[in-house]
Design goal:
CATH class of the largest domain: Mainly Alpha
Strand order of the largest sheet: 1-2
Distance between the termini: 29 Å
Largest sheet: 2 strands, antiparallel
Oligomer: single chain
Order of helices and strands: HHHHHHHHHHHHEHHEH
Helix content: 55-70%
Radius of gyration: 21 Å
Structural class: mainly alpha
CATH topology of the largest domain: Fic-like fold
CATH architecture of the largest domain: Orthogonal Bundle
């Protein structure tokens, strides 16, 4: 990973569109609660909706490789997957992410937590299968001096020892800290350890999504198309890993946690929250189809008995979850996707009505509209 052009420094990072960390955390938790009240996201929905998973993976691949100097358009990636022209790094990323995300989803469904050194090394091995890095794939670079261009962190020589401490610390983070904080600190720690000769950014982002899925959250994409997006990401990492700028403590979970707590995780957590919220909203809207149809905002306003301008205000304030299929400017929603305000409580019925027998087909149709048209 190369970090360049960092114009931000402590106290001057832009807050992002969500504002404060507390606001982002509250918005995400509200949505997770609503998703649970509506029955959660069943395995059937994710299995049927292959288009959604494939689009998410395509998006993640483009963003991840763009950050590291590869710029892969939608057309380039689809040409690669069709075998018309090759970019092995892209194809390996896609296949590895697809397998790892599916594995995490299954663990989450079974209520299991699984993270070990073998899994992380296997992610790296799959990413570099058949490439010039074949002889080093899946092998931490123990004893080799590694650098992160533009960063103040100097990765430790004992890569394997720190990875072992990492897999011991991460479950503790998720037990003791809020999900957003745990995701941000886990990601910052992995990237600071920088255990491999190459591919640390790609491994780190696949691993980040693995951890997100273990928490019942969707996979997310760290955007890297524009210089501004890359600068924001690198600056957020630099704030989060401040505790390692003067060197690494011993490879023990408690020592690493102490160093992590010296940094500012909030800017990185906010960046992650933006993608998580967007994707959670999609899952909420699709889950609603188990019970009812989505509708234009004007109909939502009538159903709620309020002026449509107030409904649009709720959308801007993220009090109403909306769905924009196929790049449409006019979003769709439903009164049950209203999260409530002081004056207007949420309206999800208790108990919910019986599931509609054709909801899976409806979800499939909406997903095809959303992702095939490149929304």
């Amino acid at each position: 990973m190369t970090r360049r052009f960092l114009p931000y420094y402590r106290g001057m990072l832009p807050p992002g569109p969500l504002g404060s960390y507390d606001k982002a955390r509250a918005l995400l938790e509200e949505r997770r609660t609503l998703l649970g009240r509506m029955g959660g996201v069943p395995l059937a929905l994710l299995q049927v909706a292959n288009e959604e998973w494939l689009y998410m993976l395509r998006e993640d691949t483009r963003h991840s490789l763009a950050i590291e100097g590869y710029f892969v358009t939608e057309e380039e990636l689809e040409a690669t997957l069709a075998g018309r022209r090759g970019s092995l790094e892209v194809l390996n990323y896609f296949r590895t992410a697809q397998f790892v995300y599916g594995l995490a989803f299954q663990y989450q469904q079974e209520g299991e937590w699984h993270l070990d050194l073998a899994l992380i090394n296997n992610i790296h091995a799959q990413l570099f299968q058949g490439t010039a890095q074949e002889r080093h794939r899946g092998q931490p670079a123990d004893g080799l001096q590694r650098t992160i261009a533009g960063a103040r962190v100097r990765p430790p020589l004992e890569a394997t020892a720190y990875l072992r401490a990492f897999v011991r610390l991460v479950p503790r983070l998720f037990q003791e800290r809020e999900a957003l904080e745990a995701l941000a600190k886990s990601h910052a720690l992995f990237e600071a350890i920088h255990p491999y000769r190459d591919g640390n950014g790609r491994v780190g982002r696949i691993l980040l999504n693995y951890l997100s899925l273990l928490q019942g959250l969707p996979p997310l994409a760290i955007k890297g198309f524009s210089q501004e997006e890359r600068e924001r990401y690198y600056a957020a990492l630099q704030e989060a890993d401040r505790g390692f700028h003067k060197g690494f403590p011993p490879p023990e979970p408690q020592a690493l946690l102490g160093a992590l707590d010296q940094g500012r995780f909030e800017p990185l957590a906010l960046l992650l929250a933006e993608s998580l919220l967007q994707r959670t909203d999609v899952l909420l809207a699709l889950n609603l189809l188990r019970y009812a149809d989505l509708m234009p905002l004007e109909e939502v306003a009538r159903a709620l008995g309020v002026d449509r301008l107030l409904v649009y205000q709720w959308v801007r304030r993220k009090r109403l979850v909306v769905y924009r299929p196929g790049g449409r400017r006019r979003p769709l929603s439903h009164p049950w996707l209203f999260l409530g305000t002081r004056e207007h409580p949420p309206l999800v019925p208790d108990p919910l009505p019986p599931e509609r027998p054709d909801w899976v087909e409806k979800a499939r149709a909406w997903q095809r509209t959303l992702f095939d048209l490149g929304a």
